[in-house]
Amino acid sequence: MNRMGWVVDLGQIGYRPAFELQRALHRARVANRVPDILLLLEHPPVITIGKAFHPNHLLFTSEFYEKQGIEVCPTDRGGDVTCHNPGQLVGYPIFDVRLHGRDLHKFLRNLEEVLIRTLGEFGLEAHRVPNFTGAWVGAEKVAAIGIKVAKWVSMHGFALNVCNDLRLFQMIVPCGIADRGVTSISRLLGRSIEVEAVKPIAIAHAQAVFEMTLTPLPAKFLTEVLADTSAEHALG
Question: Residue 223 — very low, low, confident or very high, per pLDDT cuts 50/70/90?
């Protein structure tokens, strides 16, 4: 475990600001100005649309979602439509995939393994489902994965339902899968589990699966790093 990286807890942050931050960090990682970085965060209610989106998987109009205070954001990750809201642990690895096997399928399986091991710490026997990404307990999806890899550096990542309001998923066809349900750690256990209790467990398993050490850094440190790299024309 000799590779070093950073883990940054952003708390709750809007989807668009987080997306712009990812893009900046992606450019910095491609330029080798920063090491691998795992961002952990929660989003306010938002529906995101991936590159494999089918219009029928949004069940209502944009105006309806807007009235409900739910943002709808097209994005450049893989996959169909999904949603985020508080109580869901989101992880965005800005990783150089060449350092993790140089294999996109292996990279996805590793992300799934982090989630499966994390769920196992709560006594939940999670598994994979052929032809779908993510982590499942029984026939229900508890964690979704959607990534983008450009110039061998990843963006986007996973969303693990911990204690979030699952009613938001009833407003879409989650990940385009109509015949399977969505669940959360809290629902499966029948008791409330907070996101803060899950974060250190997810970090520990990310370090083990990706064979690296993740040093915690404050969010404000990223602002300083990006300001420095911008000044050096590292971010284009």
Answer: confident
pLDDT per residue as tens digits for the range 66-123: 999 999 999 999 888 999 999 999 999 999 999 999 999 999 999 999 999 999 999 9
Torsion sign (Cα): 88, 94, 98, 104? positive
- pLDDT grade for 224, boundaries at 50, 70 and 90: confident
Residue ranges per structural domain of the chain:
3-218
Q: Examine the residue annotation and report whether 83 is marked as an active-site residue of this protein.
A: no
Catalytic residue among 73, 83, 163, 175: 175
Which residue's structure tokens are 């960090």?
Answer: 25
Domain at 3-218: CATH code: 3.30.930.10
Nearest alpha-carbon partner for 162 in 23, 43, 1, 37: 43
**Could you tell me the two tokens for 69?**
């205070």
